[in-house]
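Hey, I'm writing a tutorial for new members on how sequence and structure tokens pair up, and I'd like a real worked example in the thread rather than a made-up one. If someone can provide the structure for the chain below, I'll link this post from the tutorial.
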Amino acid sequence: MDNSNVDKSRRRFLTAAATVVGGAGTVAGAVPFIATMAPSEKTKAIGAPVEVDISKLQPGELTIEKWQGRPVWILRRTQEMLDDISAQADIVSDPVSEASAQPDYAKNEYRARENEYLVVIGACTHLGCSPKFIEKGIDESPSADKGGFFCPCHGSRFDLAGRVFKGVPAPTNLVVPPYKFISSSRLLIGDDSEAV
């Protein structure tokens, strides 16, 4: 065959066009495949870490997220709330969280990585009921004058650090799940591993 009359610019154009169309097809086919690698909502509920935006959480506000099918409370505490926690050390059962379930970084008076934010599982340690958030001054239970959490089922009370008051049915403080801050406005619940 005689190749002397072949239009080389047309051949280059057709080759480039076929390459672009083939590349676009590959990308279009890969996108759904890659999307299937992300954990589903069901998987997240079972145990995958959950990322939470806390940028809009105002001081004194509580938000509730779900992790492993359980409610996780995130409370942004004010300085007054932190002062009230310190003032209640003598009326709570486990003031520095020695006997309660939490990571080592939460074994302190405020039970937190950063004092301003409380992150706890929203289930009473007595029978798993869901306590109510009581703001300061709402006297729905004894010792609620400083705010905290009250379980109406059996009367267990917890302060604003999730520490259980003495003389109530709940045996331990509220559980602190593993968590870490991935930025100043984002929290990751279910993973507290350090970056390598």
